[in-house]
UniProtKB/TrEMBL annotation:
Catalytic reaction equation(s): beta-D-fructose 6-phosphate + ATP = beta-D-fructose 1,6-bisphosphate + ADP + H(+)
Pathway this chain belongs to: Carbohydrate degradation; glycolysis; D-glyceraldehyde 3-phosphate and glycerone phosphate from D-glucose: step 3/4
Source organism (scientific name): Clostridium neuense
Known role: Catalyzes the phosphorylation of D-fructose 6-phosphate to fructose 1,6-bisphosphate by ATP, the first committing step of glycolysis.
Residues covered by the Phosphofructokinase domain: 4-275
Record protein name field: ATP-dependent 6-phosphofructokinase
Gene that produces this protein: pfkA
Binding site for ATP: G11, R72, C73, G102, N103, G104, S105
Main localization, broad class: cytoplasm
Subunit field text: Homotetramer.
Activity regulation: Allosterically activated by ADP and other diphosphonucleosides, and allosterically inhibited by phosphoenolpyruvate.
Length: 319
């Protein structure tokens, strides 16, 4: 192993820059040459590679987004595109590739490994939807962003005695909604893993008003439905003014939390170590606060286990 490359792919997540920094500086410390790939798999196919030094990653650990940028790449979905990407890596003398991204990005790394490219993936996604790891890079920062928004919305919701429905990201995974709902003291948390009973939701809101509750906060995961439509239906049935807030891409930005910086740094170091050890087609994760690496095929096939305990806690504390 003489030269490795690193790219970020898919949606950006706070902590990606910290991961890039860890990969680059660990590799240089081990005497390896490091190439940065701009714009993900699209940049790889187009040969957008450049050599990185220690100063290339100076002053980035606190920055959100990704200095390598990210892009969609329809060409990479085709076999010809992947073969071209593998050829580009060989032309630049790259022996190993670190891919920072989510599920789709890992599938790309998986396919490149079958073309003879040593690959290691780092879980960079705010959704926390990868089963093999307890936490993904960016999830904790996103929770804090959502929590800050919830705190502010609670103030105005209380002043107007409103129902406030906050739609958060996460695709088909309800972790952002569930964790932020518990931490933010939400009255209801609606997630795709469980769905919801509309009549029961409205009954809870009305009972809360009768008991003197000044406001009602509902956290809605985007995988369940739209906040605006739900707000309209709730107001029609309960007669209580209801407002929806869609946090959107604000959840992807911002300076990463201390947890995400630490997680990204630990994972980045392990990714380089795995490549040096001759491992390929691996993904790095964290379980029970220990950094681990798993076979990418096993990791992608692992069924997701929903945290029933946290869901029960959310329901119990919302009463």
């Amino acid at each position: 192993m003489k030269t490795i490359a690193v790219l970020t792919s898919g949606g950006d997540a706070p902590g990606m820059n910290a991961a890039i920094r860890a990969v680059v500086r660990t590799a240089l410390d081990k005497g390896l040459k490091v190439m940065g790939i701009q714009r993900g798999y699209s940049g790889l196919i187009n040969g957008e590679l450049f050599e990185m030094q220690r100063h290339s990653v100076s002053d980035i650990i606190q920055r959100g987004g990704t200095i390598l940028r990210t892009a969609r790449c329809a060409e990479f979905l085709k076999e010809e595109g992947r073969k071209k990407a593998a050829d580009v890596l060989r032309v630049f003398g790259v022996d190993g590739l670190v891919v920072i991204g989510g599920n789709g990005s890992f599938m790309g790394a998986q396919k490149l490994s079958k073309l003879g490219i040593a690959t290691v993936g780092l879980p960079g996604t705010i959704d926390n939807d990868l089963s093999y790891t307890d936490y993904t890079i960016g999830f904790d920062t996103t929770l804090n962003t959502v929590l800050d928004a919830i705190n502010k919305l609670r103030d105005t919701s209380t002043s107007h005695e409103r129902v406030s429905i906050v739609e958060v990201m996460g695709r088909d995974c309800g972790d952002i909604a569930l964790y932020s709902g518990i931490a933010g003291g939400a009255e209801s948390v609606i997630i795709p893993e469980k769905g919801y009973d509309f009549d029961k939701l409205c009954k809870t809101i009305l009972e809360g008003k009768l008991n003197g509750k000044m406001h009602n906060l509902i956290i809605l995961a985007e995988g369940v439905g739209g906040a605006a439509e739900l707000a309209k239906k709730v107001e029609e049935v309960t007669g209580i003014e209801t407002r929806s807030t869609i946090l959107g891409h604000i959840q992807r930005g911002g300076s990463p939390s201390a947890f995400d910086r630490m997680l990204a740094s630990r994972m980045g170091v392990r990714a380089v170590e795995a490549l040096i050890e001759g491992k390929t087609s691996r993904v790095v994760g964290i379980r029970d606060n220990k950094i681990v690496d798993d076979d990418i095929d096993d990791a992608l096939a692992m069924p997701r286990k929903f945290n029933e305990e946290l869901y029960n806690i959310a329901n119990m504390l919302s009463k």
